Amino acid sequence: MPHSPSNRPRARVRLARGASPWLLPTVATAAVCLAKARRSSRWAAAAVPATALAAGMLWFFRDPEREIAQGRVLSPADGVVQSITPWPDGRTRVAIFMSPLNVHVNRAPLAGTVTSVEHVPGGFVPAFDKESEHNERVVWHFDTELGDVEVVQIAGAVARRIVPYLAQGAKVEQGERIGLIRFGSRVDLYLPEGVEPAVEVGQTTIAGVTRIDRD
Q: What pTM was estimated for this model as a whole?
């Protein structure tokens, strides 16, 4: 029996884990400004930017459900392919730039086991800068059907916090959420030797949906 407008299920809004330290103070400030706006023109003026900022934060920290695509290697990030680089050890690095408008929850490119999660201190230059390779980052290694697969979450000029969702030893499904990078940033995926990329520089990717490798 079809749902009527009154009993149709409502879609649940999901926010990214790890968003609270930024989101809660922003939303609380907007709520206070709006509550006092009727009594004071100053509060009314403050309510406009506070509400806009809160809305922006809610949009940035969205974490939509995804129907995971079929494919051997899927994109770990929403964004744009910034570069495709042959690596000295035979692997190929696919760098994906994530703007502040992208979803910043990253996903596992393949099913497997998390063999290591390493936080590496570094700088905070813009993620599109070549020097961002030396930024604060989290390096993941997964034991998969293709062998070891490396994924690197890189912080940007504003994104100074990476929140891993999984620990070493965890089993992970393809497309499963692995962590959050706050604000503009980059994700590097290292394809094992012999695996050719199917994407091109400038191509838009969607985490858990866009296939990265070629048959």
A: 0.78
